[in-house]
Amino acid sequence: MNATNRAANRLFLLVVGIVLVAIGLVGVLLGAVPAVMHAWSGDAPRVRRGLDQAFAATTIPGTRADWIGIAVLVALAVVVALLVVFIVRQGGGHTSVLLETRGEAVASGQEGDRIVIDTAVARDLLGDALSGRPELVTSSVTTYRVRRTPVLRIAATCRRGVAPTDAQAVIESALRRLDRAVGHEVPALIELTGGFRARMAAATTRVD
């Protein structure tokens, strides 16, 4: 779970994969197929002359630069910028804020004070509630922002032989106690791993 769009990730990987496969295929054909290598050797001078003429026709008057070269540089700059944004967004979506609310108004017509509950509150409360449970081996609590809403992610490793429904019930009970403590129902995603019976279960969510 992160802030990067999954469809954009897959589209980017698909485009990069197609380009790399095409380049590799051309290299293999040039190196392994004599007919292709001879054809390229005969056509290369003609292709080069055509490229030289095309670049010469696009030269900006009064300069030695051509607009094709400038367009390529601009395109490369855009690609680099997109890659930087992509890299920065990887692992993004984490937030330290669990909940933001407003306190009761002090006077009529006035908003109450802004109350911010840190993720550490949920991590401590849930950690204490789950640490001693025999159904679970380990558990971790993180918070992500999904569509501008903080969502808890509780990842737990079940002890071998424990049914996923039993582990889920334990975690949901702890979540209900957290809801009562903070005064709001906190959206949460439960991910269970561990023994064979746990691996057969899908992740459980109560995200609205």
Number of strands: 6
Distance between the termini: 16 Å
Structural class: alpha+beta
Task: Tell me the count of domains.
Answer: 2
Overall residue-averaged pLDDT value: 77
Sequence of strands across the biggest β-sheet: 3-4-5-6
Shape: elongated
The CATH topology annotation of the largest domain reads as: GMP Synthetase, Chain A, domain 3
> How would you characterize the largest beta sheet?
4 strands, mixed
Task: Sketch the topology as an H/E string, one letter per element.
Answer: HHHEEHEEHEHE
Indicate the low-confidence ranges by residue numbers. none
Corresponding CATH architecture of the largest domain: 2-Layer Sandwich
- CATH class of the largest domain reads Alpha Beta
Radius of gyration: 29 Å
Beta-strand portion reads 15-25%
Report on the structure:
The structure is a single chain. The protein is of the alpha+beta class and 208 residues long. The protein has 2 domains: 6-89, no CATH class; 97-205, GMP Synthetase, Chain A, domain 3. It has helices spanning 6-32, 34-57, 67-89, 119-131, 164-182, 196-199, and strands at 97-102, 114-118, 136-146, 149-158, 188-193, 204-205. The strands form 2 sheets. It has a 4-stranded mixed β-sheet, covered by helices on one side. The protein has a two-stranded antiparallel ribbon with strand order 1-2. α1 (6-32) packs across α2. The radius of gyration is 29 Å and the shape is elongated.
List keywords for this structure.
208 residues, alpha+beta, 2 domains, four-stranded mixed sheet, two-stranded antiparallel ribbon
Describe the secondary structure blueprint for this structure.
Layout: H1 6-32, H2 34-57, H3 67-89, E1 97-102, E2 114-118, H4 119-131, E3 136-146, E4 149-158, H5 164-182, E5 188-193, H6 196-199, E6 204-205
Parallel strand pairs: 4-5
Antiparallel strand pairs: 1-2, 3-4, 5-6
